[in-house]
Amino acid sequence: MKARFLKNERGQAMVELALVLPILLILFMGIIEFGRVYHSYLVITNASREGARVAILGGSDDAISARVGEVTADLDQTKIQTVVTPVPAERKSGELAKIDVQYKIPLVFPLFDIVIPNPLPLSSKTVMRVE
Known about the structure:
Layout (H helix, E strand, L loop, with lengths): L1 H7 L3 H45 L4 H11 L8 E6 L10 E10 L14 E10 L2
Antiparallel strand pairs: 1-2, 2-3
Helix pairs in contact: 2-3
């Protein structure tokens, strides 16, 4: 009698794996994608701060963009945009310098296109007072 029950349950583990595996894979892909996006956000936030530091010390727009490029060296440079306000002639002591770094990170896993846009736009703005 016992042997008959074992014979009927042989495919149970395979069915359970088939039901749970897609959910685990989506969860795993989501963790990887979130890590990539969060890393990129931290990098552009740091780049924005570094660019603002150059701006408040009297650096030109080219020097600011170069510094942002150095800090974001591990990202795709063609997708990084740096906006500096005000123009160098208007950056006087006591005025505010604003550096906005924008980056569009392409998503690796196409399944997440349903929920979030691909490429995902990230932006970080830093405001510091000119010295």
